[in-house]
Design goal:
Blueprint (H helix, E strand, L loop, with lengths): L13 H24 L5 H20 L15 H5 L1 H4 L13 E4 L2 E4 L2
Antiparallel strand pairs: 1-2
Helix pairs in contact: 1-2
Length: 112
């Protein structure tokens, strides 16, 4: 994110984490009860119910309007766009041993 000049805001407080966990528990609990009331007993019906009814009702009750209506995303420059594959790749730091090898996931790689 640093490479794209994007500030990451983490929800590190117990209150923020608890809010998400409570919402997920609420979502799971409500979903099961709603499906029982609708007498749904197979996966296909459950998927249709969740898509067409449950999510709509849940969002209507719990969604919040954004404080600003405008799109706050910024466009990437051509230079940033070219670097995306490198930016969104998995990177691991390794130590080169005296015999010019590195170890990754219990596999040794010999460097030229």
């Amino acid at each position: 994110m640093q490479e794209l000049d994007i500030e990451v805001v983490f929800a590190n407080s117990p209150q923020a984490k608890g809010k998400v966990e409570r919402m997920n528990k609420t979502l799971q609990d409500r979903k099961i009860k709603e499906m029982r009331l609708a007498k749904i007993d197979d996966v296909k019906e459950a998927n249709e119910f969740v898509k067409k009814e449950f999510v709509v009702k849940f969002n209507k009750k719990f969604s919040a309007k954004p404080s600003k209506k405008q799109d706050l995303h910024r466009k990437l420059t051509d230079q940033e766009r070219k670097k995306l594959n490198n930016i969104f790749s998995v990177k691991n730091q390794r130590t080169v041993k005296n015999d010019f090898t590195i170890q990754y996931l219990n596999i040794y790689f010999q460097l030229d």
